[in-house]
Specification:
Number of helices: 3
Radius of gyration: 13 Å
Mean pLDDT: 79
Structural class: alpha+beta
CATH architecture: 2-Layer Sandwich
Order of helices and strands: EEHEEHH
Largest sheet: 4 strands, antiparallel
Number of domains: 1
Strand content: 25-35%
Length: about 100
């Protein structure tokens, strides 16, 4: 996996997270155009983290698109906790994906 030039992942939330029961588009990207995924093992790791965090935070994932240096999600947050969900997903990704 390539090392990013500055911070690991920028997360873009398109709406305030406190709005319960909404469906959100969300994108996370690696700074500097570095690769996020080297192979399918990396993609499966992220999908596992998305699933685990979804169960923990009650977030439903409707769509995902995993690109080489970023990913897109469409999520429903019945509890209005999108930020906590994404924090749960991305915490530890640095250690696994940028080894």
């Amino acid at each position: 996996m390539s090392s990013p030039s500055s911070s690991i992942i920028d997360m873009y939330l398109f709406r305030p997270e406190g709005f319960k029961g909404s469906i959100w588009p969300s994108t996370a990207a690696v700074n500097g155009g570095a690769k996020l995924f080297e192979d399918d093992k990396d993609r499966l790791y992220l999908l596992g983290r998305l699933e685990e965090a979804g169960e923990r935070h009650g977030v439903r994932m409707y769509l995902f698109c995993l690109m080489q240096n970023h990913f897109h999600l469409v999520l429903e947050t019945p509890r209005g906790n999108l930020g906590r969900y994404m924090q749960g997903v991305l915490t530890g990704c640095e250690l696994q994906l940028f080894r």
